[in-house]
Amino acid sequence: MRAWLLIALLVSGCAVTPRNPEQWMANERNACLPTAVSMAEGLKRQGIQAKVVRYAYNANGRTVGHAVTAYLYPPGSNTLYTYDYEGSWRTRAFWNDPLGIATAAERLRSRFDTPFFSEFL
To answer: Cα(94)–Cα(104) distance, rounded to whole angstroms?
Structure first.
């Protein structure tokens, strides 16, 4: 029984999602776009497909913008993740649909404002 528990812990420890190479940036105010660009560039250097998704939504009567990194991990798979200052989240959306990615990313992070504009940078 202990052996199975140890094996499960070791295997689950191998499935770690990538982290931003410029971690200090994630803590800065209004740094979502440079953080997303930095993360995407770092992932691409490692051979991981990545895109920056920039989007806008209405919150409390004003337009707010945000950016996330969308990437397929592990390399060669079709498993989509999104990254922002809250970390990486497994995201269910189509790889070529920026509005779908933005909407799914917001809902995963318990923010239920629906994006009305989105694009890949």
So the answer is: 10
